[in-house]
Amino acid sequence: MLSSKPAFHTLSFMLCTIFVSALSGASINDHNESTSIQGVAEGRYNGGVSWGNGRSIRQVNSGRSSSLILAADRTHRKDPSDSFNYYTGGWNISNEHYMYSVAFTGAPLFIIATVWFVGFGLTLLLIWLCYCCCKRRSNAYSPSAYILSLLFLSIFTIAAIIGSVVLYTGLENFHNSTKGTLDFVVSQAGSTVGKLINVSDVLDTAKITGVAQIFLPEDVKKNIDKVDDTINSSVNTLDTETRKNKKDILHVIDLVRQILIIIAALMLFLAVLGFFLSVSGPESLVYILVIIGWILIAATLILSSVFVLLHNVVEDTCVAMDEWAKNPKVHTTLDDIIPCVDPKAAQETLSQSKEVTFEMVVVVNRIINNVANANMPTGAPTSYNQSGPLVPNLCSPFNSNNKDKKCAEDEVEFGNAPEVWKKYVCTVGADNVCTTVGRLTPDLYNQMNGAVKVSGGLYQYGPFLTDLLDCTFLRSTFNTIHDHHCPDLELFSKWVYIGLVLISAFVCLSIIFWVLHSRERSHRKYTKLAGP
User: Fold this and answer.
1) 24 pLDDT tier (thresholds 50, 70, 90)
2) Which is nearest to 13 in space by CA: 492, 477, 489?
3) Bridge-based pairing state of the strands 48-50 and 65-68
4) What number of other Cβ atoms are within 10 A of residue 445's Cβ?
5) Long-range contacts of range 63-66, CB-CB < 8 Å, 24 or more positions apart?
6) Residues of the signal sequence (predicted)?
7) What are the backbone dihedrals phi and psi of residue 28, each rounded to the nearest 5 degrees, phi first?
8) Which of 243, 330, 361, 444 is a good FRET partner for 31, with 20 to 30 A between their CA atoms?
9) Mapping DSSP to helix (H, G, I), strand (E, B) and coil, where does residue 491 land?
10) Pairs from 56-59 (Cβ < 8 Å, separation ≥ 24)
11) Are 182 and 174 spatial neighbours (Cβ–Cβ below 8 Å)?
């Protein structure tokens, strides 16, 4: 039986795993110093195996078990909570040292933002003090300084505009890629829900399906009821939680998108307005814009550090999903976070579907052997004048112990049974007795077909249940996300923080030349007025 909690973990994790660990940050370096490693959490590495894509993994055997460190290459980072030693436990959002190590890598841009805010603030204060205390001010005009300041101001303003375009383009594409990834995961969840509902429906149909008033044993029907309850609970939880998680994640992403759009618009407006004011506006307004820009640049740099973390946590998670999917036999931290399905519960569901399939075949073959193929004397309760060649038995793909078995040569399989049995149907009169050669009445034939649909349907969903049991379904989904969705998520999240850094840097430089050019313009005006 598929327990509701593991079933929720299976699909809801794919909705939130890319973003949940962003709370803890990620590496600012796309290529770390370490060699790709696979080992135990203690960080002891024993031999490596090279991968064709340049990554390598190292695996350590501990007793009888082996453990794989996920995304070891990317997560080999300094951990401030461990005396700045390198963290070697790999991708693990439940490990506080992983969280500290990735959070610490966001420090560079945050420190730059702090230095800018404090340093430029002190500079503004110093300039103001000098302005107030110095009684004599030089009004010397330099034509070359005037032209160069205007030239650099124009260049940096254009560069800030380009940075805004990069930011906006990356932001929109990142938002669309995120939404596409979530839509894919929801569709996978919907596919799983649909198949589980179909399994439940087939099991319900099996309870009321019989041939010649022979039905499944009562104990089998009771087991079906238990499985139905568990499946329905899993379906409701999986569908509800998956959609809820998608909604919550999109809400956060939309909020971040709106904030960044506002920041980008303000910075762009600030750069353009500052350019025009420094060229032709009052000097006092330029200084007001300088103060506004001072604050906005600090905020933009902080947002840049956050998006660096988001970009790298996306890459960490994508690498972790890929390595987990490619190493199904090795234990990883993902196995602790997302047990694909409760093994005992899933095995019971799979066993129950096999049991129902077997029992339904038993019902059909019982009617074939004891009624249709029996040469009953006229007047017997089960006689309807059946005659002619014997009807072949239906093949059961399982033994009574639910082990797979091969069909005998004289048995028919689920796929062709209706077509084969159709040749044995006789024509009946008003009393439902055969008037032509044949061993199956149309009514009996239809009942047997109904039983085949039930048993064949359950057999058809066997591989699906097996995939849920051994994580094949989830691994396939992770592979698709890694191959088709991760590249865009990684690329466009990088565009966002690059755009933010560009805007911050060039608006910062623009501010300096606002002041310089505004002063040169003021000196030029004074020189003209004071001239002969």
Assistant:
1) very low
2) 477
3) unpaired
4) 20
5) 65/331, 66/330, 66/331
6) 1-22
7) -80, -15
8) 330
9) helix
10) 57/323, 57/327, 59/330
11) no
3-class state of residue 519 by DSSP: helix
Report in angstroms the alpha-carbon separations of 253 from 15, 260, 482. 13, 10, 20
**If DSSP codes are grouped into helix, strand and coil, which group holds residue 211?**
strand
The pLDDT tens digits of the residues spanning 438-479 come to 999 999 999 999 999 999 988 888 888 878 777 788 888 889
48-50 β-sheet, strand order: 48-50, 56-62, 65-68
Among all chains, which residue has been given the structure tokens 């933010």? 500
Over 70: is that where the pLDDT of 39 sits? Answer: no
DSSP 41-84: TT-----EEE-TTS-EEEEEEETTEEEE-TTTTT--EEEGGGTT
Measured between alpha carbons, how far is 286 from 277 in angstroms, rounded to an integer? 6
Strand, coil or helix: 7? helix
Listed in sequence order, the DSSP H helices in 327-406 are 333-337, 343-367
**Separation CA 227–CA 199 (nearest Å):** 10
Distance CA 350, CA 426 (A): 38
**Alpha-carbon span 165 to 111, nearest angstrom:** 26
